[in-house]
Specification:
184 residues, mainly alpha, 65% helix, elongated
Length: 184
């Protein structure tokens, strides 16, 4: 019996390649930024190790500053590896742990800045926290948009979206887009 009955025609997905039908082309710049940020941060720590260790020691006990810095940079390298894997396999959800982890890290640093009275550091860490929050929102919204675009259901069918997905999609659709160039 033939399995080619009537129904929606869907493009075949390669089963072994691990690619996702929910990948949006703008996930590439998000992933490249995350990789560049993680590698640059780790390289900067390696190049100015004593300064970074002293900075960590200003928040924690100086005896654990080096160990804490090694742990944080090791975790950061794991986040970079996860991002590379997400890019190679085209899995947008693999960007969520790195984005959420960097947000959590800058959130903790912001709290420590308040407790230590480091207002300049607080401004910097809150700016990074907001930047990673925007990237998390954009990556999530792009994933929702790609999921809707990959569905082969009828027009106007937005069923199956959670309230969070609906809000992300509505916010993305409100972002102004440049007008196409006019033809003379």
């Amino acid at each position: 019996m033939s399995a080619s009955g009537p129904g929606p025609v869907r493009p075949p997905k390669p089963a072994s390649s691990g690619t996702s039908a929910y990948w949006h082309r703008l996930h590439y710049p998000v992933g490249v930024f995350l990789i560049a940020y993680g590698l640059a941060s780790t390289a900067a720590a390696a190049l100015s190790w004593s300064d970074r260790r002293d900075q960590v020691a200003s928040y924690l006990d100086s005896g654990v500053a080096g160990t804490a810095l090694i742990g944080v940079k090791g975790l950061e390298l794991l986040l970079v590896v996860l991002t590379v894997a997400g890019l190679l396999r085209r899995r947008d959800v693999w960007f969520l742990p790195p984005l959420a982890s960097w947000m959590a890290g800058f959130g903790v640093l912001s709290v420590l800045d308040v407790l230590q009275g480091k207002w300049g550091g607080l401004a910097e860490h809150v700016a990074y926290l907001l930047m990673f929050g925007v990237l998390l929102f954009v990556s999530y919204g792009l994933g929702v948009k790609a999921r809707l675009g990959s569905r082969s259901s009828g027009p106007g069918d937005g069923g199956g979206l959670t309230r969070t997905q609906e809000l992300a999609l509505a916010a993305l659709n409100r972002i102004p887009r440049p007008a196409p160039p006019s033809r003379p």
